[in-house]
Amino acid sequence: MLVEFSIVPLDKGTHLSSSVAKVLKMVDKSGLDYRLTSMGTIVEGRWQRVMALIEQCHERMMEDSDRVITTIKIDDHRGRTGRLAGKVEAVEKVLGKKLKT
Amino acid sequence: MLVEFSIVPLDKGTHLSSSVAKVLKMVDKSGLDYRLTSMGTIVEGRWQRVMALIEQCHERMMEDSDRVITTIKIDDHRGRTGRLAGKVEAVEKVLGKKLKT
Amino acid sequence: MLVEFSIVPLDKGTHLSSSVAKVLKMVDKSGLDYRLTSMGTIVEGRWQRVMALIEQCHERMMEDSDRVITTIKIDDHRGRTGRLAGKVEAVEKVLGKKLKT
Amino acid sequence: MLVEFSIVPLDKGTHLSSSVAKVLKMVDKSGLDYRLTSMGTIVEGRWQRVMALIEQCHERMMEDSDRVITTIKIDDHRGRTGRLAGKVEAVEKVLGKKLKT
Predict the structure, then answer these.
(1) What are D47-90's pLDDT values in tens digits?
(2) Which end of chain C is more exposed for a tag (fewer CB within 10 A), N or C?
(3) A10: buried, middle or exposed (CB in 10 Å: 19+, 13-18, 0-12)?
(4) Which residues of C touch B34 (CB under 8 A)?
């Protein structure tokens, strides 16, 4: 399944790149395929592995912060994999042109 | 922590009350405190129990559907409990009036 | 349409009831039907009025904060109204029991 | 501000690339800078232009569908622009390495 998530501490002020970097370090090491976007991180994998990673990232953020908002969106399509690239390519194919990605 | 979630199948058409009812039956039996709203379900509890419940609900929906979108929003405030009612009451207290809840 | 929204400032620390109260005051005065939950506010109405209200609330929060995260979820079901109460009642009817709301 | 959105019809089944393509055609023509990801579309611009675009996309989807779920997440950071690329680069700079984007 595809899972987009973001983890936002409420007591670290407006500059969050250091906080996000701590999370991304864990994502990058996890072995799961992922993409970092300007609005969150998208990972692909099975429920157990993905959720264990997000829990680990959330707990890491809670070490530095007293209140954290974590949002998770799951798109689970039976039998499908390779969707980090595949979903975008399917849209480009319908339109017959490259989009900004 | 407080966790709002919704589980939406994409191949069940526009009438989802039966699908939602299957999920709510599991939530109601879970023993976790919860509130059903017109836009989702809010539960309060620790990560392991809440996420095990949401996984169970998501998997139940996948039995009937080939594609499911599940959204989860976590508000984790260190040391706080009783927030299903408490957060709303705190806002009413600031305003000095009852709001529609 | 039903619209759930929440507006979170990132530089106001972990206690947000005063900030939320400013927003709810505007919602309560808007004339739109709404429900305040522990995870957000749900309003019912047409796109123009609902979005004008959310913009007004977001701009109010930006007066006090340098960075604000606003999330909006729209459930638009053609021809349907009265869904703030109706969606919950439909689920209760399927289950044949009252749920926690 | 940065705005991520996704527009999901509930009565079009599990294959949504044609529906998404109609929306992306409008985004691509809008003149706003954007990125298509596997989980949504991220645009950068001012409230009025971005929300007019999303309304137009939502209404387009409602022409083909009786029920549509649209989610919108706004990250508004006073005085900042160029954040579609800038936020990702800031995280990479902290980590001192390229991430998957």
Answers:
(1) 999 999 999 999 999 999 999 999 999 999 999 999 999 999 99
(2) C
(3) buried
(4) 100
At A13 the pLDDT is 95
Q: Where are the domains of chain C?
A: 2-95
Q: What is the pTM of this model?
A: 0.98
Domain D2-95 class?
A: alpha beta
Task: Report residue C33's pLDDT band, with 50, 70 and 90 as the boundaries.
Answer: very high
**CB–CB of D35 and A94 under 8 A?**
no
Query: How is residue A101 annotated by DSSP?
Result: -
Quickly state the pLDDT bin for D43 (edges 50, 70, 90): very high
The pLDDT score that the predictor gives to residue C68 is: 98
User: Residue C20 and residue C1: Cα distance in Å, rounded?
Assistant: 23
Q: List the one residue out of C14, C26, C8, C24 whose CA is nearest residue C64.
A: C8
Look at residue A80 in the predicted model and tell me its pLDDT.
97
8 Å CB contact of D11 and B8: no
Q: How far is C51 from chain A (nearest CA, A)?
A: 21
DSSP, res B91: H
Q: What is the pLDDT, as a whole number, of residue A87?
A: 96
How far, in Å, CA of B92 to CA of C71, rounded?
Answer: 22
CA A57 to chain centre: 11
Q: Positive or negative, the Cα torsion across D35, D48, C24, B35?
A: negative
User: Which residues in chain D belong to E strands, given as ranges?
Assistant: 2-9, 33-37, 40-44, 67-77
Distance CA A23, CA A45 (A): 17
